[in-house]
Amino acid sequence: MNMMDPAANKRMAGKPIDRRNARRETAYDISEIRFAGRRPPVTCMVHNLSGLGACIEAATTELPKYFILANHAKRLRTVCQIVWRDGPQFGVRFLTIPRQMA
């Protein structure tokens, strides 16, 4: 908190602290969440992403902690881990380096 500027403290009150370690870029990419086994993929929207993770929205909240994200717009796929959830949106950490899709 800024002890010298009470107005600045009021502006910051109630805003979440951004704990991201990498700069994110806005994406709005249609993608798929893919699972092991025969379960069909789930379509999702990647709202923003960095080299370390992404913010994704899906119509279902019933997702496993780990899955493969296939970003069709960027032709990349990577293994992800869900690190936070807020309704239909969730944040993921990339566990592998994104690779080109065949």
Summarize the structure in short.
The protein has 102 residues and is mainly β. It is built from one helix and seven strands.
Provide an overview of this structure:
The chain has 102 residues and is mostly beta strands. It has a single domain (21-100), classed as Beta Barrel (Thrombin, subunit H). The chain has one helix and seven strands, in the order αβββββββ. It has one helix spanning 6-12; strands spanning 25-34, 42-49, 53-58, 66-71, 76-86, 89-94, 99-100. A six-stranded antiparallel barrel has the order 1-2-3-6-5-4. A hairpin with a 3-residue loop joins β2 (42-49) and β3. The relative contact order is 0.19. The model is unreliable at 7-12 (pLDDT under 50).
- Total number of helices: 1
Q: What general outline do the C-alpha atoms trace?
A: globular
Instruction: Write down the secondary-structure element order.
Output: HEEEEEEE
CATH superfamily: predicted glycosyltransferase like domains
Q: State the distance separating the first and last CA atoms.
A: 50 Å
The major pleated sheet works out as:
6 strands, antiparallel, barrel
Find the CATH topology: Thrombin, subunit H
Tell me what the CATH architecture is: Beta Barrel
What structural class do helix, strand and pairing data support?
A: mainly beta
Number of domains: 1
Strand content: over 45%
CATH top level is: Mainly Beta
Let me know the average pLDDT: 85
